[in-house]
Amino acid sequence: MSIAVALDGPAGAGKSSIAKRAAKALDFIYVDTGALYRAIGLAATRRGVAPVASPEVEALLNQITVDLTFNEKGEQAVLLDGEDVSGLIRTPEASMAASEISAIPAVRAYLLDLQRNMAKTRDVIMDGRDIGTVVLPDAQVKIFLTAAPEARAGRRYKELIEKGMDVRYEDILQDVIKRDYNDTHRETAPLKPAEGCVTVDTTELDFEQSVEKIISVIKEKIYGAE
């Protein structure tokens, strides 16, 4: 029987990087569901379609293909119409588009089966906003990963600066705060801790400490030991 770890939390909490490292340590497959929403947001932006519930968005879903692929090392690539857009979906603009597009029921329904199928035959750590509450409600391990908005904005700022992007910390902080509001107040699958989850706050933890904490929680839940 495969093991599913649902890792939810707000934007910039480090879910992707932490989950990726933990999955590698545990020999699990890491599934970044947020990348799927970012890819659809990118598709909407490219076609000039506003990322709000509309006939245009529903029509868009019938015109595109979105998928995740994994290489022999378990590393993920995001494909939009067969194009690897893994690098194109990591900008602040793509993040905001993802927040808006993910509030649309038709989009969430479009991706639900794809996400669930990934956990049926493989041990996975799947991160997102509603994994433990909606996508994988029966996951053996549910974790809500969070941190103060200022800490999350600082980490995202450092990440983007290291990639050579021209960004301002104040703008990123406002994006984080706005994204938090959008994610927690949307009608469809709002961001909230899943029932029975373990909340992990990484505000005062560095990256390695955060990874160690997540691995510890997973091992304790699955094996009953640290």
What's the short version?
By secondary structure, this protein is of the alpha/beta class. The chain has nine helices and eight strands. The strands form two sheets. A five-stranded parallel beta sheet has the order 2-6-1-7-8. A three-stranded antiparallel beta sheet has the order 3-4-5.
What topology does this entry show?
Elements: E1 4-8, H1 15-26, E2 29-32, H2 33-47, H3 55-61, E3 66-70, E4 76-80, E5 83-84, H4 92-101, H5 105-118, E6 124-128, H6 131-135, E7 141-146, H7 149-162, H8 169-185, E8 198-201, H9 207-223
Parallel strand pairs: 1-6, 1-7, 2-6, 7-8
Antiparallel strand pairs: 3-4, 4-5
Explained architecture:
By secondary structure, the chain is α/β, with parallel strands linked by helices. It has a single domain, classed as P-loop containing nucleotide triphosphate hydrolases (Rossmann fold, 3-Layer(aba) Sandwich), CATH 3.40.50.300. 49% of the residues lie in helices and 16% in strands. The protein has nine helices and eight strands. The strands form two sheets. It has a five-stranded parallel beta sheet with strand order 2-6-1-7-8. Strands 3-4-5 form a three-stranded antiparallel beta sheet. Strand 3 (66-70) and strand 4 form a beta hairpin. The longest helix is centred in the C-terminal third of the chain and has 17 residues, at 169-185. It is globular and about 50 Å long. The model has no long low-confidence stretch (mean pLDDT 90).
